[in-house]
Specification:
A three-stranded mixed beta sheet has the order 1-2-6. The chain is an alpha+beta fold and about 180 residues long. The protein is elongated and about 75 Å long. The termini are far apart.
């Protein structure tokens, strides 16, 4: 304890001397506190701020995730004025990787999107890689991943669920007539 008190005293004396000669004191910025919101609150904020509609989101079949559709991602990008640029990292007959750079309020995020027969059913690999990269960069910039919110383009599993859900909704509507 004696050594810590000595160090503290020396720091205080150094700060006082700096103040006496007019030197500016450097202060470490406080670390950002984690966002204390629920998934429902962040979704409500996105609905309000970005003009999302109920058809822009749906629950994943396992219920843990909320999925935002392609149109929802585009609405968030436009409403938040997120600037995104892309670099093609690799493109082959059966594989494409794209790096996306997103900018929002001075904050920069870099992420990737990739597509291959192993993770998608379409053969438009470059297009899918670009969509996945865009979805990921937009959702990272609005901190959606912290709340189990994902983009529809990120996995074929998410798309299949939407098709099954739409099919079930149609069947239920027909039954109720």
């Amino acid at each position: 304890m004696g050594r810590q008190k000595e160090i503290f005293t020396l720091q205080m004396e150094a700060e006082q001397m700096a103040a006496n000669i007019g030197a500016k004191q450097t202060v470490k910025p406080k670390p950002k506190q984690p966002v204390k919101m629920t998934q429902k609150e962040i979704l409500n904020a996105l609905y309000k701020d970005c003009g999302l509609l109920p058809e822009d989101t749906y629950k994943h079949k396992k219920g843990f995730y909320t999925i935002i559709t392609r149109t929802g991602i585009e609405k968030i990008q436009r409403a938040k004025d997120i600037n995104v640029t892309f670099d093609v990292v690799k493109i082959d007959k059966d594989y494409a990787a794209v790096k996306a750079y997103g900018f929002l309020n001075g904050r920069k995020v870099e992420t990737f999107g990739e597509a291959s027969p192993a993770n998608c059913t379409s053969s438009y690999y470059l297009m899918l890689a670009e969509k996945r990269a865009l979805s990921r960069v937009v959702l990272k910039l609005v901190n959606a991943y912290e709340f189990n919110i994902y983009g529809q383009d990120e996995a074929d599993d998410f798309k299949k669920q939407e098709k099954e859900q739409s099919k079930n909704d149609l069947i239920n509507k027909l039954k109720n007539k």
